Amino acid sequence: MAEETTTEATTEGTEAAKVTATEEWTPPTKAEYEALQAKLSQTNAESAKRRVELKELQKQHETDAEKTKREAAEAAAALYKPTAVKASARAALLEADAKTDRVAALAGLLDVSKLDIDDSGGITGLEAEVKRVKAEYPEFFKSEDDGKPRPGKLTPGSKQTAGTPKTAGEQIAARYGG
């Protein structure tokens, strides 16, 4: 009887391999991708709404010990949530090519009320907020032209004026690329 199960599983596995070998994957079109992204964000919003409803129902049916434990966990989360969200937001902004001198200001522009820490420790809603800020304030993000020197401008490492000798700190910085 065990041999039959193995044979069936092997037969199913080879059929699946044949199907995937004959079918070639094609990437979705831009319209299909955008439709999937819209559906994903809608599903995520519905999921967040249901999590809130579930928490409210759990609050209604909890014992005194569970209530004390929940309140302690909420107090701890309220204490550390802003720090965790701020650190994750700065990292996400840097990944989105934000100018390094503007990251703190951009982090302040994020709507923290839309961000939440999920059970695995990830920040939900952060991607959408970064996209929104990037769309509203594109001047705070690097563009392709930022790395190219502009005509008539001095580039780093150019000659200094003849009358000013370098200090020891400047000499060390120049030697090590600073």
Task: Describe the overall structure.
With 178 residues, this protein is an all-alpha fold. Helices cover 62% and strands 2% of the residues. It contains six helices and two strands. The chain has a two-stranded antiparallel ribbon with strand order 1-2. Strand 1 and strand 2 form a beta hairpin. Helix 3 packs across helix 4. It is flat. The termini are far apart. The N terminus is likely disordered.
What class would the helix/strand composition place it in?
A: mainly alpha
CA-atom Rg in angstroms: 27 Å
What's the order of the H and E elements?
Answer: HHHHEEHH
Total number of beta strands: 2
The largest beta-sheet arranges its strands as 1-2
> How far from one another are the termini?
74 Å
Total count of helical runs of at least 4 residues: 6
Helical content (DSSP H or I, runs of 4+): 55-70%
Question: How confident is the prediction overall: mean pLDDT?
Answer: 79
Shape: flat
**Strand composition percent:** under 5%
Which blocks of ≥5 consecutive residues have pLDDT under 50? Answer: 1-10
Note the main sheet: 2 strands, antiparallel
